[in-house]
Design goal:
It comes from Mucilaginibacter phyllosphaerae. The protein is an alpha/beta fold and 222 residues long. It is 43% helix and 9% strand. The protein has one domain: Rossmann fold (3-Layer(aba) Sandwich), CATH 3.40.50. The N terminus is likely disordered.
């Protein structure tokens, strides 16, 4: 998916690290799905999640987004570098792997690198695995962009990668939020994708956030 997900630079608002002393700090790790390709920054899922949590009475700062279009697990690892240098956060979301699948990268390598990323995420979440939320990989085979391709193969491969990241997440005792089913909703609906016919629209992101916010809100309010 590097052909269509290529890009440069981090998606990070200048205001994303500004917070009051009692605001919760949120770190979003990932690729173009976390960046919010072709949607306004405020409509990406990390920013929609922040807004949703605020509406629920949670005092959370704007997110720090460590993500880049086209990133695989190895590239996210390099982006993270030494976890301790990134500071600490009250909660972290992680969504990574679609570019590994698209580029047909090795499953064992994905598992190893995903586990390393997850360990770094836990460190950055002050060592609390319950404040780390792994999101399953959406199925781009359900988008108009995939028309004419082997959709069954894409779906099967996405499922294989999600089995891997869920196994790693379960072993680490972090939260696992399955959004793949949502991404497979009405693939012919142009309102659910952006102008590239591939990436989630603000509306699709809002559906993700409805599910993510419930689990995040429940955990961080404890």
């Amino acid at each position: 998916m590097a052909i269509v997900l290529a890009g440069t630079g981090f998606c990070q608002s200048p205001k994303s690290t500004t917070a009051t002393a009692d605001s919760l700090r949120y770190l979003a790790l990932g690729d173009s799905y976390t960046v919010g390709r072709f949607v306004p920054t405020a409509q990406s899922f990390p920013y929609q999640l922040t807004a949703s949590l605020k509406n629920k009475g949670v005092n959370v700062a704007l997110p720090k987004v460590l993500a880049q279009n086209g990133w695989r697990t190895d590239e996210l690892l390099k982006g993270i570098g030494e976890p301790a240098k990134n500071g600490t956060f009250d909660f972290v979301t992680l969504l990574i792997g679609v570019n590994n699948q698209y580029q047909q990268k090795d499953h064992d390598t994905y598992q190893t690198e995903f586990a390393q990323i997850l360990n770094a995420a836990i460190i950055m979440a002050k060592g609390n695995p319950k404040h780390v939320f792994v999101l399953s990989i959406p199925d781009w085979g359900s988008t108009p962009f995939a028309n004419g391709r082997n959709l069954d193969k894409i779906t099967a491969e996405i499922d294989e990668y999600n089995l891997i990241n869920k196994e790693v997440a379960d072993a680490a005792k972090v939260h696992y939020i399955y959004i793949t089913g949502i991404s497979r909703t009405d693939g012919t609906n142009a309102d659910l994708v952006t102008t590239d016919r591939l990436h989630p629209s603000a509306k699709m992101y809002s559906w993700w956030v409805n599910k993510i916010a419930k689990e995040v809100g429940k955990e961080i309010k404890r």
